[in-house]
Design a protein that fits this description.
Largest sheet: 5 strands, antiparallel
Radius of gyration: 19 Å
Order of helices and strands: EEEEEEHEHHHHHHHHH
Number of strands: 7
Length: about 240
């Protein structure tokens, strides 16, 4: 998790590495959160905006990535004023950052220790490149955090009331600073919680999981899952249980 200096810029950090035999690939399918990811890889630094659906990545050979899931307030500074890039990826020019992170992974064999060092490097770079956000940008951070962390907030009106702003203002903040409508953020967050529930409770009935996460019934949950992930709930569970190939 980011420290206090980064809290209004970064939601969390994550990292991965892989070493696959020749000819072997591994498909990783993720449902992104309603926020941009800043990722450092061996050849590029990329900023990827929120996606309307799942994102699939094919891994092969060897590689690594260290990334920051950004607060909405941080995205505009990295894009030179543009606030959102839904369903798009931009290259960020940062050859010095790539070199520093690559050197760490080359120098430190222990993955956890390497991650600590690369996150420190990425943190320092973000502090240098992203100035402290103003009040308007911080409101976008709070709107997203509210919806993601409070499952009882299920409508635009409830979102606006909790933030002490008008529904029109809440919708404008969501559109301009996050790239999704309030309703879409609510649906995405509910589905994220539902998928986590399904992963953590593999023997619980799908009907019970749907009810626990605020869906009117199992078919309602299934329709939303198909629309966003292009999978049924049963297919998602099977994919989670299946080993990578």
């Amino acid at each position: 998790m980011p420290d206090a200096l980064l809290a209004e810029r970064v939601r969390w950090f994550w990292a991965a590495s892989w070493h696959l035999p020749h000819g072997v690939t591994s498909e990783q399918t993720l449902l992104p959160f309603a926020a941009a990811n800043l990722a450092v890889e061996p050849t590029d630094v990329t900023l990827s905006g929120p996606s309307a659906s799942t994102v699939a990545t094919i891994l092969k050979g060897s590689g690594w990535v260290v990334a920051a899931n950004l607060q909405p307030a941080a995205t505009a500074a990295l894009l030179g004023g543009q606030t959102v890039i839904p369903d798009a990826t931009r290259i960020i020019v940062a050859a010095d950052l790539i070199a520093e992170v690559a050197q760490v992974f080359h120098r430190i064999e222990d993955f956890d220790a390497a991650v600590d060092a690369t996150v420190a490097a990425l943190s320092a770079w973000i502090v240098q490149r992203v100035p402290p956000p103003g009040d308007s940008a911080i409101r976008a951070n709070r709107l997203l955090a509210l919806i993601e962390n409070d499952p009882n907030v299920t409508t635009l009106g409830e979102t606006a009331e909790a933030l002490h702003i008008s529904p029109r203002t809440a919708q404008r903040i969501a559109h301009d600073d996050i790239g999704m409508s309030v309703g879409r953020i609510i649906r995405r967050s509910r589905l994220q919680r539902t998928l986590q529930h399904a992963r953590e409770s593999p023997t619980e009935s799908l009907a019970a999981i749907a009810a626990a996460n605020g869906y009117s019934d199992h078919s309602h949950m299934a329709a939303e899952l198909r629309t966003i992930t292009r999978q049924t709930a049963t297919q998602h569970r099977a994919a989670v249980r299946a080993p990578n190939r």
